[in-house]
Amino acid sequence: MLAGCASTAPQETPATVAEIEPAVPTEPVAEPEPDYPVANFEKDALFQLLVAEMAGYRGDYGLALKKYMEMASETRDPGVAARATRLASFLKNDDVTLEAAQIWVEVEPDNLDAQRHSANQLIKRGNLEAAMEHMAAIREMGGPSKFDIVAYHSNELDVEDRAGLLAAIERMLQAYPDDAQLRFSQAVLLQQSGRLDEALAIAEELLVDEQKANVVILKVNLVKRLQSNEVAIGYLGQQLASGEDNRRLRVIYARLLFEVDRLDDARQQYEAILQQSPTDGDTLFALALIALEQQDTDMAENYLQLMVRWNRRAGEAHFYLGNIAEQRDDVVTAIREYRQAGQGYEYLPSQARLARLMMDQGLLFDASRYLANERVKYPERHDQLIMVEAQLLSDRGIEDALFALLDNSLEADPENIDLLYFRAMSGERFGSLDILERDLSAIVKIDPNNADAMNALGYTLADKTERYEEALVLIERALVIKPGEAAYIDSLGWVQYRLKNFDEAIIQLRRALFLFNNDEVAAHLGEVLWVNGDQDEARQIWGEALEMAPESDILKRVIELFTP
User: Residue 15 pLDDT more than 60?
Assistant: First the structure.
C-alpha cells in the first residue's frame, strides 16, 4: 500500500508512453507497483496517507483525492503527487489534475507521465504556450511530443496569445529545426494570423518529404484563400488520383465540388465514400442535399430514409422528409415527420412548420395547445417556442391572440427583453405606438446599455411622431454605445432630416449607405436629396438600389411619392 507513496516512481520507457491525452485508469487506485525504496514520512503525514488509501479502497474517492492533494502539497513527494494526479484524472477533476501534475513535474521533472498530464491539462485550458514547454520536455526525454496538437487547439486564441504561441514555436524551432510537427503548427498559426504566403511556403516544404493528409488539407485551405476554389479542387483531385484513397481528402474534395455547384461531380465523390461506409450519416445527408438541389425528391427521400433506418442524424432526416411531404401537399405525413425531428438545430424550424401547417388547416387552438405542450416538455425551450407561436400569429395578423400570448408570458417574466422587444415591434406593426414606446422604454430601464432598443425607439419617434428632440437624444445615446452601427447612423440621418437639417442628414445618410448598402437607407438618402433639390442624384441612388432590390416596397413607395 505504501509503495504508492514512494519518493521515486518507476518511469515508463518512451515505447510505452501513450499520446498527450493521459490514460484513464480502469480502477480509481493505481495497481501495485514493484518494490523500491520508500520515503520516510512524519507520523501525521503517514496517517493522512493511510486515510487516503483506505478511502480509495472504500470507494470514497472524493475524500481520497482531498487527502492525497493535501499530502502532495505538504510533503512534495513525487509518489504522492503521482497518486493524486492519476486519481484526479480518473475522476475528471481537471483543476485538481493540473494542480497535482504541476507539483509532480516540479519535484520529478524527468517523469514522462508528469509532463504528459501537465501538457494535457494546459491544452484543455487553452494555455498552449505553457503546454509547449512540457511537450518540449517530453521530446527531450524521447517521448512523443505531439507538437501538432497545438495547431488543432489554437483557433480560439486571441491575437496576443496567438502571437505569443507563435513566438514560442519559433524559439523551439531553433532547437528542433527539422521537427515537422512544429513546422506544421507554425504554418497553422501563420494562417490564423493572416500570413498566408508564409504558411503556404511551409506547407510546400513539408509536402516535399511526405504527403501527409493534414498538410495537404492545410495547403488546400491556403490555396482557396490565396487563389480560388477551382485551383484548390484541381490540386486535391491530383492528390487523390496519384495517392492512396484517403477518406478525409475525398470528403473535402466532395465538399469543395458542392460549394462551386459541380453537383454531379460532388455526388460521384460522395457515392464513392458511401461504398466504403454505407451507414455514414454525413455522407447520406450530403447526397440527400445534392438530390434536393437537383430537385430529385425521390432520390433525396431514399437517402433520408436510410438515415432514419440507420439512426444517423435521424432528426435532421425527419425535418427534410417533412419538407418533401409539404412540397407534395401531404400535410398528414409532413406533420408526422416534423413531430419526430430531433432536439438539434432542426427542432425549432420543425415546430414552426408543424404549427404553421395546423394553423393553415384552421386548427389555431390545436396549434397553440401543441406548442404549449412542447413548452412543458422542454422548459429550456420555453422562450423560443413562445417566439415561434408569436411570429406565426403576427404573420397571420391574429392580433388578439398574439398580444394575449405575449402579455401572459411577460406577466410571468416581466423583464424578458426578447419578448418585450417583440411585443414592442408588434405594437408598431398593429399601429399601437403606445405599446412600442412602453416596452422599449422598459428595456432601456432594465438594460441601460441596450442600444438596439434606444435606436428603435428613437427612429420610431422620428418617423411616426413630431418628438424629434427626444428621438435625437436616444439615437445619439445609441451611437455612443455602438458608434459604427450603420442602422443607427441611418436613424441619425433620418432624425436630422425631420429637424430640417438637410446638409447634416445627407452627410449621415451617405455614411450609412457606404457602411450598409441596402434599400431602406437608399430610400432615405434619395428622399433627402430630392427635398434638398438634387433630384438627379436622388434618381440615381434609387435606380441603383432598385437593381439590387427590385421588389423593395419602401423604394417603390418613395419613388412613387416623389416622381411623376
Answer: no
